[in-house]
Amino acid sequence: MSGFEQLFPGQLPRLVMFDLDGTLIDSVPDLAAAVDNMLLTLGRKPAGIESVREWVGNGAPVLVRRALAGGIDHASVDDVEAEHALEVFMEAYGASHELTVVYPGVRDTLKWLHKQGVAMALITNKPERFVAPLLDQMKIGRYFKWIIGGDTLPQKKPDPAALFFVMKMSGIPASQSLFVGDSRSDVLAAKAAGVKCVGLSYGYNHGRPIAEESPALVIDDLRKLIPGCLDTAAEITLPDASQPPSGNAIVVVTRKLWMKVIKALARWRWRA
């Protein structure tokens, strides 16, 4: 039985929201190259790809601070030093994405969902300026009607604000929506928004198995969502026992977002 058949019996979700890094693309080689370039520029030793693989997932500022700290805990990093290092990193990362690749099954899945008329959105903590060009380079950008980067809105995952925003824009409720990601931040954001979440086992998640975060479903290939596409051996995990957010919570979040909607839409990448 496919992932969609398990999570949405007799129907498809009307909206699927995706994370980017570790979910649709493997960007760690380019991120690691940029981090090492930054560290060398600052007179430090390079971190290497395996360390960077464990540090990604919470946006560029946090990645840079972890690189300066040499580990996940970055509380001791000087803010002024981190700000300068971030500028160096952003310049280095913006120069090249030649080592980034699309994971197997991603294009097939996006194409299938598009043919079924399922609306798709991308919600990533990656800085917005990199997202649309990277999607176009990977030849998958045309599938997404809404694109939200890590600085498009004031909040980023694990805050659910971006998920609420997309559902509000699409007019599709949480009960008919799905989020697909690879990290703890993705699962937490989806649960906070009352949205079912699929976790991908091949992603980053700071070196920890995504099953530990208890998404609704764990798969190792996106095509396992599609009925009849692959022999599915997806692992079902118990959903969070907590109740979804109340209507009042949604109203509060969306009211805050609409205060910023004009600014957000001015930077929006709208796709037909």
- For the record, the CATH class of the largest domain is Alpha Beta
Strand order of the largest sheet: 5-4-1-6-7-8-9
The CATH homologous superfamily of the largest domain is called HAD superfamily/HAD-like
Q: Report the principal-axis shape.
A: elongated
User: Domains counted in the coordinates: how many?
Assistant: 2
Secondary-structure element sequence? HEEHHHHEHEHEHEHEEEHH
Quantity of strands, as a count = 9
Radius of gyration: 18 Å
Per CATH, what is the topology of the largest domain? Rossmann fold
First-last Cα distance: 32 Å
- The CATH architecture of the largest domain comes to 3-Layer(aba) Sandwich
Percentage of residues in strands: 5-15%
Q: Main beta sheet, described?
A: 7 strands, mixed
* Overall pLDDT metric: 88
Computed structural class: alpha/beta
Number of helices: 11
Low-confidence stretches: 232-272
Task: Tell me roughly what share of residues is in helical segments.
Answer: 40-55%
Organism: Pseudomonas fluorescens
Keywords: Carbohydrate metabolism, Hydrolase, Magnesium, Metal-binding
EC number: 3.1.3.18
Pfam family, one: HAD_2
Can you describe what's shown?
This is Phosphoglycolate phosphatase. Mg(2+) binds at residues 19, 21, 182. Pathway: Organic acid metabolism; glycolate biosynthesis; glycolate from 2-phosphoglycolate: step 1/1. This protein is α/β, with parallel strands linked by helices and 272 residues long. The chain folds into 2 domains: 3-26 and 101-266, Rossmann fold; 28-94, DNA polymerase, domain 1 (Orthogonal Bundle), CATH 1.10.150. Helices cover 40% and strands 11% of the residues. It has 11 helices and 9 strands. It has helices at 3-7, 28-41, 49-55, 60-69, 79-94, 106-115, 128-137, 161-170, 184-192, 247-258, 261-266; strands at 15-18, 25-26, 101-102, 119-123, 146-148, 177-181, 196-200, 217-219, 235-236. A 7-stranded mixed sheet has the order 5-4-1-6-7-8-9, with helices on both faces. The protein has a two-stranded antiparallel sheet with strand order 2-3. It is elongated. The protein starts with a helix and ends in a 6-residue tail after the last helix. The model is unreliable at 232-272 (pLDDT under 50).
